[in-house]
Specification:
Blueprint (H helix, E strand, L loop, with lengths): L9 E2 L5 H13 L4 E3 L7 H11 L7 E3 L12 H6 L2
Parallel strand pairs: 1-2, 2-3
Helix pairs in contact: 1-2
């Protein structure tokens, strides 16, 4: 089965800590399957935990993120993706 990225995604801008976690958790419970975040938001840990706790298969979800400009270099891009 091939999935297409949903046009509408749940954003996480300005959400921190429990607010980020709960927002993503509620969005997934409401049927969202596209979650949008960014490294600069500082909430990737909470977003990831909400996704993990949802029980939804990873191949049913789309997670989009933005990489900050200072991490686009050859030596910093991949390491920046591995940090939480």
């Amino acid at each position: 089965m091939s999935l297409s990225i949903p046009t509408l995604g749940a954003g996480t801008f300005r959400l921190k800590g429990d607010d980020a976690y709960n927002s993503v958790k509620m969005a997934l419970e409401a049927g969202y399957r596209h979650i949008d975040t960014a490294q600069i938001y500082g909430n990737e840990k909470e977003v990831g935990q909400a996704i993990a706790d949802s029980g939804i298969a990873r191949d049913e979800l789309f997670v989009t993120t933005k990489i900050w400009m200072d991490k686009l270099g050859k030596d910093s891009f991949i390491p920046s993706l591995m940090r939480v």
